[in-house]
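Possible race condition, two jobs.
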Amino acid sequence: MSDKLFVGLGVTSVEDNGTLPPISRVTLMVDDNNAITAGDDTGREIIADCPFATQEMVNALLANLQGYQYHAYTASDAGIDPAVELGDAVTVGGIYSVVSRIEDDGTGYPSIAAPGEAELEDEYPSVGPVTQTFNRQISETRSLISKTSEEILLKVENELEGLSSSFSVQLQQIQSQVTGLNGQVSSITQKVDNITLSVSNGSTSSSISLSVGGVTVSSQTIQMNGLVTFTGLANGTTTIDGACIKTGTIEASRIDTDSLYVNAANITGSLTIGQLPNNVATTGDIPDKVSDLENDEGYQTEQGVVTIIDGRVTADYVEALGVRARYLQGETVQLLSSSGSLVGAMDIVNTNSGDGLTIGTNRGGIRIETGQSGNIYIRSGHGPFLMLGYGDTGSTAMCQLGGGPLVIPGASYGSRAPSGSGEYGEVYFQLE
């Protein structure tokens, strides 16, 4: 009640229609089917239409009206201030009530009244009797529009089903959210420097965050359908089309693949190529150092391991149609026939002057041959030599022996001149 008026006995007649029970409940009708209420049914109920009603509004009204008793009256020809308004408090004929109705015939002395229950039902049939028992079912689904200095909120919710949707506009952000049962929530939040989309079911979640500095995608599973193209600031482009990835450079700590095809490979670090032995049962059995692959003699065992470190290739075997190298190092060079059988070998042997080299064959002979213009020259470090080819003159082919005396052991010559073609194991010289 905005103003309080005192009329007293300044009327022609006053009728006291009694006091109604105190107000115990306030109900605001959002629409024909939806309502928000507060209070109990011990007294009267105040019902009004308000499409923007909230529970906070209903609670505030009840706090102000609870316990108020409506005193019905009728006063004729009241001498009141012309500025009186409906809702003003008035004291008339010893009755303190409210001005609920004004009837003015132009004389300047209107009749005022606070109608009784039956009259209210007549005057305001859409509200119903003010003393009615609350029997309206609170709506399962309701909506609200809230406006404050800090926020504009639109919301629709169903408490029984646990569903709600809201749209909030604040100074620093705009947010929309849909909430379901079992912790299911989806939201979109827009701020001045980022936009975030998120979906969660309580245990797992997915989110996309867009900012000036980049885009962050987080999810248990990320699935993309169609052609995906990534273009960087350095004019680099990556295209993912089905199972095909086309790009310039791939940087990774590890690449696992069943088959790898490359036109060229430049490896700056350590490269280890291997196949696990058959007796490996656990990961603890897998060697993690090159030294673990070597036996007591410093050579790798036959475990199918190939290492390439600092330009050096270490392997058990190398099989190829051809090997081209500036240096070949090793203890044994074996020569195989076209069928793969061993024919001969060059080996390291122990001689009376230290480690030496031997050339041997398992079958057949040993043939050393040059082209028409080539010589064969064999020389020892002590000086003696054997040359087969052209001599110093370069015109006559010869067998030249020099660098020391020719010594023929006793077992190599006979005690007499041979007859005919000579005897086996004998050496003789014949002068012409």
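Job #2 (started ~2 s after job #1):
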Amino acid sequence: MPFDSTCRPIDITTQSAQRTSDMNEHILLPDGSIEKQTTTLNLGPTHPATHGVFQNILELDGERIMKATSTVGYIHRAFEKIAERRPLYQITPLTDRLNYCSSPINNMGWHIACERLLGVKTPKRVDYLRIIIMELARISDHLICNSIVGVDSGAYSGFLYLMQYRELIYEIYEEVCGSRLTTNIGRIGGFERNFTDTAFQKLEKFLAEYPKVLKEFENLFTRNRIFMERTIGCGAISAERALNYGFTGPNLRAAGVDYDVRVHTPYCSYEEFNFTIPVGSTGDCYDRFLVRNEEMWQSLDIIRQAWQKVQSFKGADAEVFHADTPAYYLPPKQDVYTKMEALIYHFKIIMGEIDMPVGEIYSSVEGANGELGFYLISDGGRTPYRLHFRRPCFIYYQAYPELIQGGMLSDAVITMSSLNLIAGELDA
């Protein structure tokens, strides 16, 4: 035991406790004080990482997040209630505004839900064309998500490199429907028009060039030491917690659960295609990045298979792009200008003057972010009686405070990007 100048032993434990007590007496704030030991930071609604529509109130101790509270509702658009006052034809543009990074999947999901209610059977060629468009949309969405994760970890070049191929995908959309971002692509029963030769040429160009670019992108990031240290262990979630929250899509598969709507409840003839469901194990940012990268490879393979099937159609079958649904399919424009019957049907479809059958359905597709569902109730009127969108990002956002609590502020931004929180899906 140490001794003081008078050779009396000193009790270090007692002295340390006294020193701590004296320190606490000065540091701890009295009850009722307007001061506090933590800093409150609003991560959003106006922040480069939050798209300006949702807010995260963080309590920070330095740069460490001690508590997080999320709020939504800044741009509540009431899509579901608006849709309940519109005919089926006019609801499609609303679905574009959910996940606008992959709006064709939203459009196709809505059309499939309507077709199941109406009893419409689509031709095989329509199914294959839809798969091509949906998988292109999936690649476009994953491409944006993973390149932005790279940006948030300090690497901007990957983002710039991949954007040229998102542009090529948008050019394919434009050839098919005339739009790029919010596409309004397709119609109940199929497509508004047949795919042009230019669309197929651009598709072949994409299939030929993008694999090489994707491989280079992976070489830049996958084993990059800085990227790995920024993402491994960041924003992790277990499979059990992910299932409890209702996770689906890449964020659930990154946690180790191989659930995919395309396999679990196939639609659009997905059961005819061979592909693998990639899964991770830790559910962190790094595994989510790897899963989305692998899903792009799988989507490329699916597109090739669908393109081969489309090419196998000959003669009149090669011109089929819509099911026989005259009550919900607009007549050719040239007929609308010259024939009274076509003009009448055009007006009836646009204005929603055709009654729907009575029914209640839930239809879902594998969106780029997970299970995108449409719960539709019809009372036999001209508009839905009730309509609910199952938006995957709305579910992920519930878990966001749990994923970032205890981490650093910089980790909160990269976790948000890794979950691919699309603001349009939060508040429909």
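Residues 157 and 388 are 40 Å apart (CA to CA).
Logs attached separately.
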